[in-house]
Amino acid sequence: MNTTQRTALVTGASAGIGAAFARHLASEGYALLLVARRIDRLKELADALTAQYGVRCDVFAADLNDPAAPAEIMAFAQKQGIAIDVLVNNAGLSGKTAFADTPWPKLAAEIQLMVTALTELCHRVLPGMQERGWGRIVNLSSLAAFSPPGASLLYTGIKSYVLGMSQSLDMELKPQGIHVTALCPGFTRSEFHDTMGTRDSADKLPDMLWQEADDVVREGWKAVMKGKPVCVPGTVNKILAGSMRPLPVGLQYHLGNRLNPFKEG
């Protein structure tokens, strides 16, 4: 099928990995629905991608901390006649203060953004994908999902949820032509550390631990197209992930799929 007939929804598309996904998908001929809070950044990116690749780029300003946002995004897509064939759940953040010292609304917003909204968007795009018999979903997890929990942070637990949830969805949906991949990058050069106020600490890390956003995206997209449920981009990250888990992730996936109580046979 001609990819110009397919559209990708990318959240957190105004910078970093989200913007890199937008560029990569546009280069492959996908139309785009770009979502983030900063509408000016979205419009600038959309105009550039349309000019360079000739693809349709719609933009929608939404704060996924708001529980109403996923429904509003899908209502906008329906109104514009956009069918979502690819979903990239990229929007995310990390808390900067101890759990006990953080006001509950901030913790709730973190969970809403990276757990509830991510899961709801998956659920909302699936009927159309199932009807068409084709779909691709990339959920941004993290190398942190393989590591021991970090003191005071929800981030490790949230990214572990995204990793496990994505694999479970892939098991269910792959027979229907829908691939789901948990993309688990390590340290990636982007605005994330500036936003979180951790730039000074991040800059002290060795260069070998860092990847460029475009490299992360290329590996992640290749993985989801090949039907790989987990992608840890970069050789160093693969070694780190393998050293932190008692069983290889591929074996965990195989065992989970075989032991699935809902699987026929």
From TrEMBL:
Coiled coil: none annotated. It comes from the Bacteria. CDD domains: SDR_c. Keywords: Oxidoreductase. InterPro entries: KR_dom, NAD(P)-bd_dom_sf, SDR_fam. The keyword Cytoplasm does not apply. Residues 6-165 form the Ketoreductase domain. Transmembrane segments: none annotated. It holds the Pfam family adh_short. Belongs to the short-chain dehydrogenases/reductases (SDR) family. This is SDR family oxidoreductase. It comes from Limnobacter parvus.
